[in-house]
């Protein structure tokens, strides 16, 4: 997996025993599916991680304002001028 904006290698996904032929990302579930020449289809699900110290401070501020401390991948980033 590579970082979208920098192209930096983030991690290697290992699981197929041969080359990967296709990938599909499901944005609603934050899952990646891959199919390979080994005749397997794998589902790659993100691991929910505990917030880092900086994020913990931000979440404490958000929680006092009625926010929740969710993994950023699952937070709604949409905003409205009416709020």
Provide a compact summary of the structure.
With 83 residues, the chain is an alpha+beta fold. Helix content is 14%, strand content 20%. Strands 1-2-3 form a three-stranded antiparallel sheet, with no helix packed on it.
List the helices and strands and how they pair.
Layout: E1 20-26, E2 31-36, E3 41-44, H1 53-64
Antiparallel strand pairs: 1-2, 2-3
Explained architecture:
By secondary structure, the chain is of the alpha+beta class. The chain has 1 helix and 3 strands. It has a 3-stranded antiparallel β-sheet, with no helix packed on it. Strand 2 (31-36) and strand 3 form a beta hairpin. The relative contact order is 0.13.
Features:
83 residues; alpha+beta; three-stranded antiparallel sheet; WD40_repeat_dom_sf; WD repeat; Rad28/ERCC8/Ckn1/ATCSA-1; WD40/YVTN_repeat-like_dom_sf
